[in-house]
Design goal:
alpha+beta, eight-stranded mixed beta sheet, about 270 residues, 10 helices
Length: about 270
């Protein structure tokens, strides 16, 4: 295939990506880091210009397709990308104090976010104010994956062991010796958040004695991030992303408390705190 034919087919694929992007052309361009003049040149029927490899990689990442599909080397848009490594480690906090979570959440806007937290998920956590001298009722390390997410823009599903909230109610495990008022307030707050935001926010509780999962987050079709303490193991292979999405769905199927009833259980556990 000569460059002109390849360019013509790339234009067609790029137009498909633009038409299907849920957040619109402007958001797509911002996430890719491309200006409108460059987009116009790529779509100009009289030009045979093609993006550089890095731009192709960003287009593929943001749109959830493969580079090979963009270049018409395969017919399945979800095929494996070859331009970038599919696994890397990202620090939870970068040298400049920023976090990669902001970029990942932005790129996944309009898609579903699936989340298995390491402890209490931050969206339903009653975290103290930074200046307050009180104990945090979350316990352990906290990823803050859900910070700044608007449920108007994204569906969020969370799956976690029921033992996490049972330990919180009993003030055992991570919460041994915790302030009972703090634990009671935490559970009551979780109940209110889950009731108010259902079904955009769905919390599923599975039996952790029967099923185990490491903490991970599936950011739409773009990536999976496994929390490993102060860093993330980031996976961008489409096949592996689909595999983690299926693993999350298995956790949901094994839930012993469904998302539509979880607020009732949390309210009951709050009343049992002593």
């Amino acid at each position: 295939m000569d460059k002109r034919d390849l360019s013509a087919q790339f234009k067609d694929r790029l137009e498909q990506v633009l038409a299907s992007h849920p957040a619109g052309k402007g958001k797509f361009l911002r996430d890719v880091g491309m200006d409108r003049s460059a987009l116009s040149q790529f779509l100009n029927p009289d030009s045979d210009r093609l993006p550089r490899a890095e731009t192709l990689r960003r287009i593929a990442r943001v749109s959830g397709v493969s580079v090979d599909w963009l270049l018409c080397l395969e017919n399945a848009p979800e095929g494996r990308q070859e331009v970038a490594e599919s696994v890397q480690i990202e620090k939870a906090v970068q040298a400049d104090g920023s976090t990669p979570l902001d970029q990942w959440r932005s790129a996944a806007s309009g898609f579903k976010l699936r989340y298995v937290p390491s402890t209490l998920p931050d969206m339903v956590s009653l975290a103290p104010e930074p200046e307050a001298d009180v104990s945090d009722a979350r316990g352990g390390g906290v990823e803050n994956v859900l910070g700044q997410i608007s449920l108007d823009d994204m569906d969020v599903e969370i799956a976690m062991p029921v033992q996490t909230v049972q330990d919180l109610s009993a003030r055992s495990g991570l919460w041994r010796g915790a302030d009972p008022e703090q634990c009671r307030a935490q559970l009551a707050y979780m109940s209110r958040v889950c009731r108010k935001n259902y079904p955009a926010l769905r919390l599923h509780l599975y039996d952790g004695t029967q099923t185990f999962s490491a903490p991970f987050t599936v950011f739409g079709k773009q990536r999976v991030a496994l929390y490993i303490g102060d860093a993330y193991l980031v996976i961008s292979s489409p096949d592996q992303i689909r595999g983690f999405a299926k693993q999350f769905d298995r956790l949901v199927r094994r839930a012993i408390v469904g998302a539509d009833k979880v607020h009732e259980m949390l309210s009951d556990l709050a009343e049992k705190v002593r």
